[in-house]
Write a sequence for this structure.
């Protein structure tokens, strides 16, 4: 019986084991290998030692920019999204009527395909005639240039991310509704104020889900590509992702993220070796976040056990 | 009195957020049916309702081709994912063996790995097989197990009791029949959620098609098509928004039909197993 089950388990896992080997372990090894080569896909890869990394850390004119932008998205966009989603979820729990209706409305925009949503946002945030700046103008505020201003392109993308945070709102709403009612009642009996019971009852109860949201959000931010690329190219009015006359990540490199730079190096300039070195950098950063998630006892260990 | 004030305040906040969330969709819709000369003027309400714009975009761009490609990609991705993720998730959730824990850790690691880390060697593999320029590089990996779907299904399987499966085993059912006849019917909500997520993922995917299909315009999906559409019709925002509406509409319709499965599925992703 046990043997039969063991064989069954192995058979069930076989396709996946092939998948892991061919589509995960092998390419992971290849990425590391290729990062030590020069390779344009025309000849064989040529081993160059640490030269890619040397260039990457000392000479690459855009790497620092890309790291800074990716870091900005991790440090600003993710907390903004989590805080906003937590607030919206909190409001949903307080609604006595229409909670289902509002939940649907909050969720709806997250269904918009990223390319479509980004193009739409560039249009809505059009500096001169877009409805957003018209609305700001109505209140006497002169709206910024948004996606055509290097200082405002990233905040514009944050607003786009908030608009699409429906998933996170639903996840945090479920976590908030999971907090046992008795805990709130006990806190109220002890004379706790609203803020106190939020700090001492709500937050500890939802902290595993919150940590999960923060870390997966950060890993999402490391991969941030589509919205940055589409916003940059649509706002600059170019057909190509990186027109050669301009800096990558228009306006003025403000939307250039690490994956964006990898794409340009690997798939527009065919520097496959150098793109692999960038992939290793992305890997190391994402690994650091994954380890944090897996090691925290209260976090993923609980989610996954 | 205080309670009433509280009620009003929370509803006001909820309405404010809802309005901010719904406005962009309304403006997209209004712009889509504006006459050509009106888009990009401060006038936001259509002077005349040009419903024809929605048909025009099918003529000015190969939108129906992109639509067909996207549907093929999304349907294949959904089928492949479900077929491969079910047995894997089942084995990981139900067979407590040496190795299944390591296997599960691998699933989590793969789920959290940015796709860009592997994209160069993956591209080289598909190029050496002569399959770049087709959708196979996008869907074949799903046939061998998608980490996120496996994770989700495993979490769900842990919540359903094993008694039924054991009873079936005592009745002499083989392991495959236990999975197909007993466990699978109980997994319906999770299967619906994973199916929907995969369909949406493929429909929205930009990175994959950009890497593998960008040099083959007749293989384009709506995502890359739409991104290029804007640059071709750079001044015609009304047509761009009309195309945007056409890309968004199927998803929103699908959502309203499957809302329950959706919300349950999203909840499943966040809550501990």
């Amino acid at each position: 019986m046990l043997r039969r089950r063991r064989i069954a388990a192995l058979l069930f896992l076989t396709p996946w084991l092939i998948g892991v080997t061919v589509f995960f372990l092998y390419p992971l090894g290849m990425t590391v290998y290729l990062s030590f080569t020069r390779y344009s896909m025309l000849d064989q890869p040529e081993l160059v030692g640490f030269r890619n990394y040397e260039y990457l850390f000392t000479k690459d004119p855009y790497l620092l920019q890309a790291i800074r932008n990716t870091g900005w998205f991790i440090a600003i966009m993710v907390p903004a999204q989590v805080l906003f989603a937590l607030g919206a979820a909190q409001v949903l729990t307080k609604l006595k009527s229409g909670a289902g209706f509002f939940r649907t409305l909050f969720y709806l925009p997250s269904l918009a395909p990223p390319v479509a949503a980004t193009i739409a946002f560039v249009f809505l945030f059009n500096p001169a005639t877009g409805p957003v700046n018209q609305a700001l103008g109505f209140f006497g505020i002169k709206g910024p240039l948004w996606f055509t201003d290097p200082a405002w392109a990233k905040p514009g993308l944050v607003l786009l991310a908030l608009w699409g945070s429906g998933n996170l709102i639903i996840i945090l709403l479920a976590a908030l509704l999971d907090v046992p009612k008795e805990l709130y009642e006990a806190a109220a009996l002890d004379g706790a104020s609203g803020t106190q019971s939020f700090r001492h009852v709500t937050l500890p109860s939802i902290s595993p889900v919150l940590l999960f949201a923060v870390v997966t959000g950060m890993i999402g931010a490391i991969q941030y590509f589509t919205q940055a690329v589409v916003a940059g190219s649509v706002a600059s009015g170019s057909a190509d992702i990186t027109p050669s006359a301009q800096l990558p990540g228009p306006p003025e490199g403000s939307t250039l993220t690490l994956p964006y730079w990898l794409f340009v190096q690997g798939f527009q300039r065919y520097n496959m070796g150098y793109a692999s070195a960038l992939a290793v950098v992305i890997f190391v950063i994402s690994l650091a976040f994954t380890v944090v998630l897996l090691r925290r006892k209260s976090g993923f260990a609980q989610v996954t056990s | 009195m205080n309670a009433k004030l509280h009620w009003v305040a929370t509803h006001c906040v909820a309405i404010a957020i809802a309005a901010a969330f719904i406005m962009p969709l309304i403006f997209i819709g209004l712009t889509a049916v504006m006459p050509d000369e009106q888009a990009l003027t401060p006038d936001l309400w259509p002077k005349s309702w040009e419903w024809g714009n929605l048909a025009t975009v099918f003529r000015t761009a190969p939108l129906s081709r992109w639509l067909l490609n996207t549907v093929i990609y999304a349907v294949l991705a959904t089928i492949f994912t479900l077929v491969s993720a079910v047995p894997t998730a089942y084995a990981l959730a139900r067979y407590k063996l040496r190795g299944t824990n390591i296997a599960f850790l691998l699933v989590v690691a793969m789920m959290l790995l940015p796709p860009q880390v592997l994209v160069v060697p993956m591209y080289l593999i598909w190029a050496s097989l002569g399959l770049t320029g087709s959708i196979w590089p996008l869907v074949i990996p799903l046939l061998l197990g998608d980490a996120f779907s496996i994770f989700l299904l495993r979490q769900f399987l842990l919540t359903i009791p094993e008694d039924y499966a054991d009873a079936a085993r005592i009745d002499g059912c083989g392991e495959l029949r236990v999975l197909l006849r007993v466990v699978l019917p109980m997994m319906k909500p999770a299967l619906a959620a994973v199916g929907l997520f995969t369909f949406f993922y493929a429909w929205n995917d930009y990175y994959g098609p950009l890497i593998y299909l960008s040099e083959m315009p007749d293989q384009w999906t709506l995502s890359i098509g739409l991104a290029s559409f804007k640059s071709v019709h750079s001044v015609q925002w009304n047509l761009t928004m009309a195309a945007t509406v056409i890309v968004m509409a199927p998803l929103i319709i699908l959502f309203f039909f499957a809302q329950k499965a959706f919300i349950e599925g999203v909840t499943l992703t966040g809550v501990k197993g």
